[in-house]
Design goal:
36% of the residues lie in helices and 8% in strands. The protein is of the alpha+beta class. The chain is globular, with a radius of gyration of 20 Å. The N and C termini lie far apart (46 Å). The protein binds a DNA duplex through helix 5.
DNA sequence: TTAGATGGGATGTACA
DNA sequence: TTGTACATCCCATCTA
C-alpha cells in the first residue's frame, strides 16, 4: 500500500473514531456512511454504505412465539430444590455499559446492525429472527469481518476467525452464544430487546438479560461491581422458559439427558 | 485426509 | 499508574 493510501486510511480512522464517539455520545446508534468505504485504489471487500437502521419492534418477531434459547437453559448444575447455596449472580446486559464512558461500538451491535442491512444479506442472515439466531454466509463472512475491522479502525485486516473469537468471548457474558450449528450464533434475548427488536421479557419483577452462570463459560472470573444483578433460582428459570415456549422444557430435558449421559456441562 | 470451524490461553489496548 | 473489560493473536482440536 502506498504511503498516500496509508495516510488516507489514517484520516478515515480518525474521522471514524470521532464520528463514533459523537454518535454514541448522544446515545444514538447511527452510523457514518463514510465508514467501511475503502480508500481509492484499496482492494478488498465491498463494504456497504450504511443503510439507516429501522428498528421498529413491529417488524421484529415476537420472542414469545418462536424463541428458543437452549444455551441458557439451566443444566444439571442447577441447585436442587431447597438447596440454599450462596446466591450466584449474573451480570445485567446493558448496551450502555456499566462502565461509564464506554461508548465504542461493540461487535454484537455491529452484527445486529448488519443483520438489518439489506446490503449485508450475502454475509450475515437471520436463521431465526424470532430466537435471535443468525448465521454467517460462508462465502462472504470474511467480507463482514473486514468491514468490522475497518469500522473499528484496525490497522490489520480483521478476519472471520478473529471476529468469531470475539464472538465466543461474548458467550462468557451471555450477550451472544454459539449455536451448535455451523457459523451460527444467537443473541441474548435481552440484547435483542435492548437493541430494539426483542419482545421477550424475563419473569415479572426481574430485569432482563441474566443468564445462568453455567452458560457463561468456565471462568467468569469477575463481574463489575457496578453492574446490576439478578440471581434466578432454578425454578424461576423453568417458569420463565415454560411461559415463553414449550420448546424450552423439551430442550431443557434434552440438555439434562445429554449432560447426564456424558457427565459434562453443555 | 483435509479444509474450515471452533475453543481457549496469552497478550494488547482503551478507558475509568 | 493501575485495574478492568474487551479485542486480537495464535495455535490446538474438532468436525463434516
Amino acid at each position: 500500500m502506498s504511503s498516500l493510501d496509508s495516510d488516507f486510511q489514517d484520516a478515515i480512522d480518525v474521522i471514524q473514531r470521532d464520528a463514533d464517539h459523537l454518535y454514541h455520545e448522544s446515545g444514538i446508534n447511527h452510523y457514518v456512511t463514510l465508514e467501511c468505504q475503502p480508500p481509492p485504489g484499496r482492494q478488498g471487500a465491498t463494504c456497504y454504505p450504511y443503510t439507516p437502521l429501522v428498528t421498529s419492534p413491529v417488524a421484529m418477531a415476537d420472542w414469545g412465539e418462536t424463541t428458543s434459547w437452549p444455551h441458557i437453559v439451566p443444566d444439571l448444575s442447577l441447585p436442587p430444590p431447597g438447596h440454599s447455596e450462596p446466591t450466584q449472580f449474573y451480570p445485567v446486559m446493558q448496551l450502555s455499559r456499566s462502565r461509564k464512558g464506554r461508548k465504542k461500538l461493540r461487535l454484537f451491535e455491529y452484527l445486529h446492525e448488519a443483520l438489518h442491512d439489506a446490503n449485508m444479506v450475502d454475509s450475515i442472515q437471520w436463521t431465526d429472527r424470532g430466537s435471535g439466531t443468525f448465521h454467517f454466509v460462508s462465502k462472504n463472512k470474511e467480507k463482514l469481518a473486514e468491514c468490522w475491522g475497518r469500522r473499528k479502525g484496525n490497522r490489520k485486516t480483521m478476519t472471520y476467525q478473529k471476529m468469531a473469537r470475539a464472538l465466543r468471548n461474548y458467550s462468557r457474558t451471555g450477550e451472544i452464544v454459539k449455536v451448535r450449528r455451523k457459523l451460527t450464533y444467537q443473541f441474548n434475548p435481552a440484547i435483542l430487546q435492548r437493541l430494539g427488536t426483542g419482545h421477550l421479557a424475563p419473569p415479572a419483577g426481574h430485569s432482563v438479560g441474566h443468564m445462568p452462570r453455567e452458560t457463561l463459560g468456565s471462568h467468569q472470573h469477575s463481574v463489575s461491581a457496578d453492574m446490576g444483578y439478578y440471581a434466578p433460582s432454578g425454578s424461576e428459570w423453568q417458569v420463565w422458559y415454560g411461559q415463553h415456549s414449550s420448546a424450552y422444557q423439551a430442550e431443557y430435558d434434552l440438555a439434562t439427558v445429554l449432560t447426564s449421559a456424558d457427565g459434562s456441562k453443555i
